[in-house]
């Protein structure tokens, strides 16, 4: 399969550690897919779905203690603890290898170990990175086939001496007490043991494309970010691209696939999806920032996906999709809460128990059919809004970078930062209020810089410094914006309708990025004038835009204190530009307070 000596040596070494009965190299062919599917069905790992309603699709259930990323078992293993920084769990590499080896040793006895060569990014693109994943899970193989580009073409590009990320995955006992997700950025290696859940087991995704890639990006002068990539075509046919980073539960996949509201569609606006989760960004020969989506599929949350929140996703997952931890109907259909249509009359819930609509537990609470983090894995090219540029090895040029969070108060619908460093400050201070779907006190604000808190593979103080440095390297940088779709009124009602209507805000953002669009200057940045956002076809109660765009200096002063407290964590590694931006913001807030009539 390969003449890469390092790869052959590593596979031999890992084979002797894990002790599989056989080793199978994946070539990525269609015949191979059929073989793997049949194997997974025979082993009970996959259930084929209704052939007419969900052609080519399968259902899978993970262990009920293994349904989400486990941040408390995720480590960055660097020689020095300070290189992992205060926001990551750290382990010495030697200890990591030893502890994981103890669990992995002989764990594949009697089983098959698959070797999956994969490319993150179009095969052979200057943006792309190669990984090789070893795994004893057929489910992982089939998901990796969808989420990445795998097989023979990748080995060809790797050649006899190419570098690759060594990704070892073993299910072992799937015991949360014996689970470790370890990253060794200094060795370009990932070891994941004891989990079969996507975020922990599909090593190309968060582990390689964010944690390891962010480390490499810093060394090599580019950015690996937790961002969607979206193209917006205006009525003249011009397509401009934005990236956007939001913490989880802020609707990234929905925004990446949005359908223009009628008022804008009729004018000729169209949206093109390039990516829904990860962006790799490099300075192009023209001095602009260019982006590639390293993935080849969607690993989206099923619950809450419906024809209002994301009709494009519903269309995307009609066939050739793997559904995980949703409700399996006895009629071999799948269903989830806050989805589309009535549930099946009976089925099996995400815990493998018999389920009927309306079932209640002993405390009288509804029994969920699907886990709130249930997922679909679907090929990118099935998305009706898939951009024809998504496979372009050059990537797409980025006009605007958008940060955002879920804030009931404070942050206006949108603002434009004054320059790159101010943009970095607005990204570094991104915060979101906890929703019912997360542990912790509801409404509590959690800082999640650039939405990278769980995914930055090194000290976040250095990460901020890298962002500042990047600004100096990009001759023609994108403009940086902040959005908040979740502002509420005095009765706690959302002020902005969200979903497809968000395109109206993107339209203003793109106009500003071109140096057009009406705005007023505030201490926090440029905010649209109340008439600057195109509201054709949308009727909002009088005064709504004013409320959405309000900037309250007193609230912002309190927010600034919190920023400073958060930054104190990174003492010694924080670039001077961030406290400087905080000081400038404080001065601007003081200036408006002093000018206000008393
Ligand atoms: C994801 C996440 O799974 O951000 O994409 O948690
Ligand atoms: Mn994500």
Give a written overview of the molecule.
The chain has three domains: 5-45 and 70-220, 3-Layer(aba) Sandwich (Phosphoenolpyruvate Carboxykinase, domain 1), CATH 3.40.449.10; 225-296 and 390-593, Phosphoenolpyruvate Carboxykinase, domain 3, CATH 3.90.228; 298-382, Phosphoenolpyruvate Carboxykinase, domain 2. Helix content is 29%, strand content 22%. It is built from 17 helices and 31 strands. Strand 30 (519-522) and strand 31 form a beta hairpin. Helix 2 (30-42) runs antiparallel to helix 5 (138-147), helix 12 (420-428) packs antiparallel against helix 13 (460-473) and helix 16 (553-568) packs antiparallel against helix 17 (577-595). It is globular and about 80 Å long. The model has no long low-confidence stretch (mean pLDDT 96). The chain binds oxalic acid and manganese (II) ion.
CATH topology of the largest domain: Phosphoenolpyruvate Carboxykinase, domain 3
Number of DSSP helices? 17
Q: Count the domains.
A: 3
Please tell me how large the radius of gyration is. 24 Å
The secondary structure category is alpha+beta
Q: Any idea what the shape is?
A: globular
Q: Please mark out the parts with pLDDT under 50 across 5 or more consecutive residues, or reply none.
A: none
Average pLDDT rating:
96
Task: Compute the number of strand runs.
Answer: 31
Largest sheet: 9 strands, mixed
**Cα distance spanning the termini:** 78 Å
Cofactors, ions and other ligands in the entry? oxalic acid, manganese (II) ion
Named at the architecture level, the CATH assignment of the largest domain is Alpha-Beta Complex
């Amino acid at each position: 399969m390969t003449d890469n000596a390092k790869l052959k040596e590593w596979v031999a070494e890992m084979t002797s550690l894990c002790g599989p009965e056989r080793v199978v190299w994946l070539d990525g062919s269609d015949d191979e897919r059929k073989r793997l599917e049949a194997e997974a069905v025979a082993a009970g790992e996959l259930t084929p779905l209704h052939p007419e309603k969900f052609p080519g699709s399968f259902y899978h259930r993970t262990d009920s203690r293994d349904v989400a990323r486990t941040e408390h078992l995720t480590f960055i293993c660097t020689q020095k603890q300070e290189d992992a920084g205060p926001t990551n769990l750290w382990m010495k590499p030697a200890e990591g290898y030893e502890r994981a080896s103890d669990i992995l040793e002989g764990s594949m006895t009697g089983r098959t170990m698959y070797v999956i060569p994969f490319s993150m990014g179009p095969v052979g693109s200057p943006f792309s990175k190669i990984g090789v994943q070893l795994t004893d899970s057929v489910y992982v193989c089939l998901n990796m086939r969808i989420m990445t580009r795998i097989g023979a073409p990748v080995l060809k590009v790797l050649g006899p001496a190419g570098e690759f990320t060594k990704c070892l995955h073993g299910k072992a006992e799937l015991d949360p007490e014996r689970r470790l997700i370890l990253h060794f950025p200094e060795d370009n290696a990932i070891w994941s043991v004891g989990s079969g859940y996507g975020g922990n087991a599909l090593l190309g995704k968060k582990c390689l494309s964010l944690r390891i890639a962010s480390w490499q990006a810093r060394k090599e002068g580019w950015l690996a970010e937790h961002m969607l990539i979206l193209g917006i075509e205006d009525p003249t046919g011009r397509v401009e691209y934005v990236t956007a980073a939001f913490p989880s539960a802020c609707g990234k996949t929905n925004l990446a696939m949005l359908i223009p509201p009628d008022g804008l569609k009729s004018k000729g606006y169209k949206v093109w999806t390039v990516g829904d989760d990860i962006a790799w960004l490099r300075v192009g020969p023209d001095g602009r920032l260019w982006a590639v989506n390293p993935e080849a599929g969607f690993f989206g949350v099923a619950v809450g996906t419906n024809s209002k929140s994301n009709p494009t996703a519903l269309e995307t997952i009609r066939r050739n999709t793997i559904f995980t931890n949703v409700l399996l109907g006895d009629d071999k259909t799948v269903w989830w809460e806050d989805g589309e249509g009535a549930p099946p009359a009976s089925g099996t819930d995400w815990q493998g128990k018999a389920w009927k609509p309306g079932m209640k537990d002993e405390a009288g609470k509804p029994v969920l059919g699907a886990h709130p983090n249930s997922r679909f894995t679907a090929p990118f090219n099935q998305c009706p809004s898939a951009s024809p540029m998504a496979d372009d090895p050059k990537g797409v040029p980025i006009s605007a970078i958008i940060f955002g969070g879920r804030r009931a108060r404070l942050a206006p619908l949108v603002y434009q930062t004054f320059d790159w460093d101010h943009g970095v400050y607005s990204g570094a201070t991104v915060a979101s209020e906890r929703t019912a779907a997360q542990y912790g006190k509801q409404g509590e604000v959690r800082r999640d810089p650039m939405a990278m808190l769980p995914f930055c593979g090194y000290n976040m103080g250095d990460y901020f410094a890298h962002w500042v440095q990047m600004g100096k390297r990009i001759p023609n940088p994108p403009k940086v914006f902040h959005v908040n779709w979740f502002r509420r009124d005095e009765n706690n009602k959302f002020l902005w309708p969200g979903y497809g209507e968000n395109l109206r805000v993107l339209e203003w953002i793109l106009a500003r990025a071109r140096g057009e669009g009406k705005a007023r200057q505030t201490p926090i940045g440029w905010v649209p004038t109340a008439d600057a956002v195109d509201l054709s076809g949308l009727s909002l109660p009088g005064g709504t835009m004013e409320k959405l765009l309000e900037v309250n200096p007193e609230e912002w002063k309190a927010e600034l204190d919190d920023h400073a407290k958060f930054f104190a964590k990174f003492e010694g590694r924080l670039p001077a530009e961030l406290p400087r931006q905080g000081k400038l913001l404080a001065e601007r807030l003081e200036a408006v307070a002093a000018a206000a009539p008393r």
